[in-house]
Design brief:
This protein has 191 residues and is mainly alpha-helical. Helix 5 runs antiparallel to helix 6 (86-101) and helix 9 runs antiparallel to helix 10 (171-188). The longest helix has 24 residues, at 7-30. Helices cover 75% and strands 0% of the residues. The protein starts with 6 loop residues before the first helix and ends with a helix. It is built from ten helices and no strands.
């Protein structure tokens, strides 16, 4: 995540984080469905409008690192060294993201997401958006000679690797296994 540079940006980022942390704590304590935006605003000592200034929906409070996640995946492709193929760079980034989603304390968040139809639906729509952004980064790279279809499929599989790993008994092995398939498919798609 890019750190804000100015005082105003730092204050906004701190407020955003306070709201997200408060919401997650309340959701885990009381249950996602039992907590409303007004509850979050009151507990975080901000106005409801402030919550909505930082988060578009209640679901977005749970996935507060959504934008960072999407940017990190795209940067894995766009910021890699010129000689490095994109799949190993994506593999490393997905492994790092999986370590975050499986860190201590994350199991209760995963259970909350799995137990809420609204959160599962939001997560799926978020995954589709992430895959589209990643596909756009792959397609835009002039050094990659793959079709748009190959780029879209690779992006979707990378996102699915993350999703599968976050639910797996051995997350790192799951990412490695899926990325072996992604690598083979990427090579097979070469002109």
């Amino acid at each position: 995540m890019i750190e804000p540079s100015g005082r105003r940006e730092r204050k906004k980022a701190a407020t955003r984080q306070k709201i997200a942390d408060t919401a997650l704590r309340l959701f885990l304590e009381r249950g996602y469905e039992a907590v409303g935006i007004r509850d979050v605003a009151a507990e975080a000592d901000v106005a409801v409008t402030t919550v909505f200034a930082h988060f578009a929906s209640k679901e977005a409070l749970v996935f507060e690192r959504d934008q960072d996640f999407e940017e990190r995946l795209a940067r894995a492709v766009t910021d890699r060294p010129p000689h490095e193929p994109p799949v190993p760079a994506l593999h490393r980034e997905v492994q790092a993201l999986v370590r975050h989603c499986t860190a201590d304390g994350s199991a209760s968040v995963r259970r909350m997401i799995e137990g809420s139809p609204a959160l599962r639906e939001y997560e799926e729509s978020m995954s589709l958006r992430h895959a589209q952004a990643l596909a756009a980064a792959l397609t835009a790279d002039p050094h990659l000679s793959r079709s748009a279809t190959a780029c879209r499929a690779t992006a979707r599989f990378a996102i699915d690797a993350y999703a599968l790993a976050c639910r797996a008994d051995d997350p790192e092995a799951t990412v490695d296994e899926v990325f072996r398939m992604i690598e083979a498919a990427w090579e097979a798609a070469a002109p």
